[in-house]
Amino acid sequence: MRPPTRRERVYLSLWELGKGRIVQLAEITELKYPYVHREIRRLEKEGVVINNAGTVEIVDRKAFVMLWSEDKRAIFERVRPVRVKMMPSTGVLLSGSAALWVIGKVLSPSGGIVYLEKPDDISKLRSRRGYTFSVYTYDDFAFRFAKELRGFRIPPWGMVLADLLAQGMYTRLFDEVFKEVVGNGGGQNPKNPE
Hints:
Shape: globular
Strand order of the largest sheet: 4-7-6-5
Number of strands: 9
Largest sheet: 4 strands, mixed
Oligomer: single chain
Structural class: alpha+beta
Mean pLDDT: 89
Number of helices: 8
């Protein structure tokens, strides 16, 4: 069974848009309209979005992230990461607990997730010093929505939160971060980003 990486494109796009037409989602994700429509129907059945005549809107962001994290677990089970010791850099996306390090919620980025645009970039990142990360290169789509924060790049907060849950993050810390980033618009940087 293929990992649901295409489905993640729908999650990412909808998270960033908040509200949009299915046709628009299909264009942004570069996926076929019938597939995107099917995914929207699935999310609607789960009660996390509403579809009003082709305009889709997230109605429960927390439940949306919970569903996303279930698919992230499936992705992480099928797409094995490369474990790399490296220093965090601007050429990658830091996610999961590594993104929490960027906003000062954890002391170390070690064990976090790093996304690369190209698999060839792994050899350039290796270092004798640094932290150990799980590096994924299965899709570069998240780079379209990357945000800069404190000199590092992170994917959209919905993806960071889904990654945290897929990593097995503690509920209390998840709730705190969710409240902070979603309370500030969800697609924005948390309070006091600098």
